[in-house]
Amino acid sequence: MAPSDKVLATSPGGLTLAGEIPSIETVTQPDAATMLVRRILGHRSFMLAAVILVGLILMAVFAPLLAPHDPLGQDLLRRLTPPVWGETGTWTHPLGTDMMGRDYVSRIIYGARISLIIGFCAMAISGVLGTVMGVCAGYFGGRVDMVITFLLTTRLTLPVVMVALALVAVAGSSLKVVIFVLGFLLWDRFTVVMRSATMQVRNLDYVRAASAIGCSTRRIIFSEILPNVLGNLLVIATFEIAHAILLEAALSFLGLGVQPPTPSWGLMVAEAKDYLLFEPHLVMLPGFAIFTLVVAINLLGDGARDIFAPENRN
Amino acid sequence: MSALLDVRNLSVDIPLAAGVLHPVQKVNFWVDKGETLCIVGESGCGKSLTSLALMGLLPKKAIRTGDGILFDGMDLLLQSDRQMADLRGNRIGMIFQEPMTSLNPCFTIGNQMEEMMLRHRRVSRQEAQDRAVYLLEKVGITGAARRLHQYPHQLSGGLRQRVMIAMTLMCGPDLIIADEPTTALDVTIQAQILLLLAELQREFGMALMLITHDLGIVARVADRLAVMYAGQIVEQGKVEDVFAKPLHPYTRGLLSCIPVPGKTERGSHLGSIPGIVPSMIGDIQGCHFRDRCPHAWMDCAAGPVDLRSLDELRAYRCLMSPKDSLARADALELAQ
Amino acid sequence: MLNFMAKRVLVALLVAFTVSVIAFSLLRLSGDLATMIAGEDASAADIEIIREKFGLDRPYYIQYLDWLKSGLQGDLGESMFYPEKVVDLIETRLPNTLTLAAFGLLFAMGLSIPMGVLAALRPDTWVDRAALTIAVLGQALPGFFFALILMFVFGLYLGLFPISGNDTYWHFVLPAVALGYYSTPAVMRLTRTGMLEVLSSDYIRTARAKGLPTRTILFKHALRNAIIPVVALSCVQFGNMLSGAIITETVFQIQGIGKLAYESISRNDFAVVQAVLLLVACFYILLVLIGDLLNAWLDPRLRVS
Fold first, then answer.
1. Distance from CA of B103 to the nearest CA of A (A)
2. Which backbone phi and psi does A272 adopt, to 5 degrees?
3. Per CB distance under 8 Å, which residues of A are interface residues toward C?
4. What's the rounded Cα separation, in Å, for the pair C106 and C125?
5. Interface confidence (ipTM) of the complex
């Protein structure tokens, strides 16, 4: 079909076409909410970690129902029985008994409680401390920032394990002390990340706009800044739980954490250390338990970072 | 054909999550020894990827296909990585757009220039250094010997681009591909660099393939030009011919956007091409330009539009005959 | 740049000073140090003797200033359990810890830099995923547990390495691995990210356009740029190893300052604890400064002011 003899009138900058010409198709994208859900569910390691973690948490919560024996119940006649895969192992004590005759399965199950409680509580304390300091430093800048950065540098210079050991030695080893000591020492990453996230958000236009129309500082921080740094906060919080768990295990291993007979996994490794050659499972099982928990948490954190704060991936 | 570079049906495909991207679609052009060909088009039309495809520098995910990229008798599509590396810098040189980031910040200018020559020629370090000094002076950098010991960050953008040009000349390549070499520079420096390129080309007799979106540059330095739109060459020919009688509506659109001192009257409308470049994911039926073309009609959407050759040098990609096309163009101008 | 360094040194000194105050106060936080040293069964008279002997009856700030003054002159006090002075104690043990940390760093870098480069060269392939997986797993393994595993597998079971003491360099192999692996993920990730960034940079494209061989592009052009932040990180990691040595030395019975610190903390040997804490912190400060200097030295852009 040849172009018609009528001259096609054209308005400046516009097109008037004779008849309908099929235009070139464009590619469309799904909306943001669907994409987020898709990203979460599609992230394999995140989902795997979430499943493992939920499993461990449930194990800790329902410990009294799940544990076949009393974790503190000693039976010196039955000390060091091998696990069920050993020569004289029985299903009564699937993972055997330790040097005091306590059932290992029960101790491992209850050990999850200690790790999770300490992990969450220490993270909560350090999280509040670190976030407050970080947001203040990032938002107010100037002298406030200088002071907080100085505190941060000082804290980073301290050898954490040594200081934690010294503090626990001074205050006495107990669950509460360990939680508070870790809480007061592990705020540094919160501060660093919250500070830089706040600084970035503070300079965004809509925050400036809020400030320009006279919103109070408190309002700006709570309604504009915090919601936007939550992604970062979530990621760091996850990693710091793992950090706290590892530190508690180390402290308990060195004898200055949770005290016997409480079944802390770190403590169990320490107690089993002397039996490493002939009953290695006594060391390996609680150690592996710590490892599994921390891997799950770290994977969760990595996944959270991919999903909620991908710009921090590195 | 006696052409130095002969590109036949070159295509580049990039698989993406949303589909396959076709940024370069069956592109054909050639460059003779010693001549300057300009590839013109707006951002995103595929011209940079075309040049990277020639050099074999495409990102790993990109797939390069074609009937041949003949360079001095060799088919570059069939060369191994090693063979391509022997050609690059040696017989085909490339200058990129961003002089600020194109040089390694950790090594001196001299080091980077000398390494080029030491790689491709059996010369001593001193000989390479001497050539570097010679070329730096040729590109208009004073105190060349001193500059050899400087680091890139100590030079301005314009100077760095001159260094890039000098570096590309170290081994005396037969062909230089320059991908928007002046876009990132100040307007005042742009003219200097272009004149420099033209001068050097005359003196050293190499072929120059210049990629740009600036028709002013084309008018200044090119012998022939090829206009690209949405991955295809839509018009090519000698510069005077194309500028005088543009046959493709897109070319006409581009030319009308430029104010010509003397011709363009005060207060008159500067041309513009409404619409945006179509997405090149997936296949586009029919003419790529039809959404923005003032003369489009039903047939434009029907099937692929082939390149029509008028003679050896002149070709364009449109369903209208040359007479029709020019007539419509005049009618459009009158209507405005 | 001199100005910049001067400011950093000033801040460093201020931090060191603050840390000294912290180190000093740490063991005195519970209240009466004398009572703690004396133990539960001590009589009031015993406590008084201890208080006088160690000068714990003076006001805090005087104790601190005294300690600081003598410290600057090279006397960090006396231990309650060892006949030697604190300075001598540290002097004999520091070399062991430094050796351990150095070996640990060598191991960490030797493992993670090649892994990181390899992962960057083959992003999103099994090599990359394997490297990242090892990184994730490495960070989850508690140091003391890994030490025991190494001890069990390579020391007891296979009998390849000694597991206790520090007589020969062989004694440092397992502890070095136990100490160094924890830094591996961070260094590997940084190397990988750095290489990925650098490999996609314009000057690498230029290098390829120049026809340079892949080996040259990788090692001369890419790695040289990517390694800069890794060097600075490694300095920091060395500092971390000095503080993390406390666990490794205890498990492997290496007579270093880490083990010394642990024993002293358990025994409330406050002079030793103060000194070691301050020493490790000062090392860390110094290492960070060195890291910055190395950064500036390696990157010409930072060199010329």
1. 25
2. -90, -5
3. 150, 153-154, 156-163, 165-167, 169-171, 242, 246, 249-250, 253-256, 266, 269-270, 273, 276-277, 280, 283-284, 287, 290-291, 294-295, 298-299, 302, 314
4. 27
5. 0.87
Name chain C contacts of A162, Cβ cutoff 8 Å: 243, 246, 261, 265, 273, 276-277, 280
pLDDT one-digit tens code per residue, B261-291: 776 777 777 777 877 778 888 787 888 888 8
- Chain A contacts of C284, Cβ < 8 Å? 156-157, 159
Q: Which residue of A has its CA nearest to C157?
A: A277
Give DSSP secondary structure letters for chain A: -PPPSSPPP--TT----SSPPPPPP------HHHHHHHHHHH-HHHHHHHHHHHHHHHHHHTHHHH-SS-TT---GGGTT---TTSTT--SSSTT-B-TT--BHHHHHHHHHHHHHHHHHHHHHHHHHHHHHHHHHHHHH-HHHHHHHHHHHHHHHHS-HHHHHHHHHHHH---HHHHHHHHHHH--HHHHHHHHHHHHHHHTSHHHHHHHHTT--HHHIIIIIIHHHHHHHHHHHHHHHHHHHHHHHHHHHHTTSSSPTTS--HHHHHHHHGGGTTT-THHHHHHHHHHHHHHHHHHHHHHHHHHHH-GGG--
Determine whether the interchain pair C243/A161 forms a contact, defined as Cβ–Cβ distance below 8 Å: yes
Q: How far is CA C3 from CA A58, C8, C13, C292, in A?
A: 57, 9, 15, 14
For residue B104, which residues of chain C lie inside 8 Å, CB to CB? 203, 206-207, 221, 224-225
Average pLDDT, 10 consecutive residues per value, chain A (314 residues): 41 42 60 76 84 92 84 81 78 82 88 92 94 89 91 92 90 89 93 88 78 76 75 88 93 89 90 87 91 92 80 58
Q: Can you give the pTM of this predicted structure?
A: 0.82
Task: Print pLDDT tens along chain C (305 aa).
Answer: 677 778 888 888 999 999 988 888 887 776 677 777 777 777 778 778 877 777 777 777 888 888 888 888 888 888 878 888 888 889 999 999 999 999 999 999 999 999 999 999 888 888 888 888 888 888 899 999 999 999 888 888 787 888 888 788 888 899 999 999 989 999 998 999 999 999 989 999 999 999 999 888 989 999 999 999 999 999 999 999 998 899 999 999 999 999 999 999 888 888 899 899 999 999 999 999 899 888 888 888 877 54
Are the beta carbons of C144 and A269 separated by less than 8 Å? yes
Question: Which of B20, B281, B297 is the mutation pick for testing A, counting most A CBs within 10 A?
Answer: B297
Name the percent of chain B lying above pLDDT 70: 98
**Facing B272 at nearest CB: one of A1, A13, A26:** A13
d(CA B95, CA B200): 14
Encoded amino acid at A78, one letter: R
| Cβ atoms < 10 Å from Cβ of A181 | 26
* Chain B contact for A213 (CB, 8 A cutoff): no
User: Going by DSSP bridges, is the β-strand pair B308-309/B232-238 parallel, antiparallel, or unpaired?
Assistant: unpaired
Q: Angle at CA B8, nearest 5°, toward B7 and B11? A: 95
Chain C residues within 8 A of B81 when measuring between CB atoms: 214
B78-100 burial, b if ≥16 CB within 10 A, otherwise e?
Answer: ebeeeebbbbbbbbbbbbbbbbb
Check if C122 contacts B (Cβ < 8 Å).
no
Distance from CA of A14 to the nearest CA of C (A): 40
How many CB atoms neighbour CB C157 within 10 A? 11
CA A246, distance to chain mean position in Å, is 12
Q: Secondary structure of C59-79 in the HEC alphabet?
A: CHHHHHHHHHHHHHCCCCCEC
Q: Does C136 touch chain A (CB under 8 A)?
A: yes
